[in-house]
Amino acid sequence: MPATYAESLTELKNEKSEIENQKSELKSQINEKSSEINVLEDKQNQLIAQISNLNSEISKTDNEIIAVESEITEAEEKIETLKKEIKALEEKIEQRDKLLEERARALQANGSVSYIDVLLGANSFVDFIDRFSAVNTLMDADRQIIKEQKEDQEKLDQQKVTVEKTKDELETNKSKLQSLKASLDSQKAEKDRLVKELEKEQSQIANEKKVLEEHYEEAVEISDELNAQIAAEQKRLLEIARQQELQKKKAAENAKKNNNSNSGSSNSGSNNSGSSNSGSTPAVSSGNWTKPANGRYTSPYGVRIHPITGERKMHYGIDLANSTGTPVVAAADGVVSYAAPLSTFGNVVMITHSIDGQIYTSVYAHLNSINVSVGTQVSKGQHIAGMGNTGGSTGTHLHFEIHIGTWVRQSVGSVNPLNYISL
């Protein structure tokens, strides 16, 4: 493979890795802005609730003011009625005064005649009885007039005091309620001001978020463009892989013709052994594929709870856990198409395979060390790297993926590796 192709592919993938990091940072900033907006929205909702409560209080106060004004109107009407009654009482008192004056003048005109004199002046017992009855009637009338006069005067004074007191209390309550309404109106105005201020701040943050999203979309477009370039470079590598496969087939055919059963081993140059110990190179299986490393099977292909984020996410490969440096081997014959760090994958090796006319890409992630470079032709079972804990990893393990076609991203062409290898 020409060295320029390998360098070009590595540069493209390094550039893609940088853009992916930029995208990740932009995404983080967008999430931060979203969180700030959510906080502001919560504050705004609280203020709106307070304003709603204040509006209810204002409505309640308005109703109380209306009720007080109604009571004041009733009191004023009652005062008018009492004034009329007072006037009538005053007229009655005045008439009684005149009557008493007339009686006093009559007594004065007749001398100092008393009720006793009238009784003693009777000519007969019947006349005495008549005179006694007349005197009692006059005395009762006088007493009744005085009593009524006193009662009316007391009633008049009491009504005047009660009405004035009630009127003063209602006026005080009215003033108090009006003051409360003014206070509530002031509070409402303050809350409206705060809401407008929050809306302004929210609009500013939303605009900032929009700018970040636009930058993010640009980064996505650039990433897609890089993916296309990477795909083009991988196609060149695929041609090498196909040529390798054709050469192996021709070699096998020649060996068959020459009846040389001991030549054409597909594992020459590999650093494997028959031992299956955990820290050793795994035994090579027959067929096109073999296990990439020895280790404990810790995570299957499919949806799972992510060990770092705690979210339910698709796991596009399988995990084999073992000690740092445990040998990792090529799962099939092919050409190394990537050998460098890649985002949360940490150190990564990708191998492109051409098997029976079908293109595959195998991915080996979180590596501690890499023993191959881009463009290297590798055989099934050949030692290519050491197991590690780089990138977004919670422990030493190998994350292994198989994709049908060239590798574009995790979700494209992903298949369950257990359909091809045995553990």
Automatic annotation (TrEMBL):
Keywords: Signal. Residues 281-291 have a biased composition (Polar residues). CDD domains: M23_peptidase. Residues 258-280 have a biased composition (Low complexity). Residues 10-26 have a biased composition (Basic and acidic residues). InterPro entries: Cell_wall_metabolism_enzyme, Dup_hybrid_motif, M23ase_b-sheet_dom, PcsB_CC. Residues 1-31, 248-302 are annotated as: Disordered. SUPFAM superfamilies: Duplicated hybrid motif. Residues 86-158 form the Peptidoglycan hydrolase PcsB coiled-coil domain. Residues 313-405 form the M23ase beta-sheet core domain. Signal peptide: none annotated. This is Peptidoglycan DD-metalloendopeptidase family protein. It comes from Ureibacillus galli. The lineage of its organism: Bacteria, Bacillati, Bacillota, Bacilli, Bacillales.
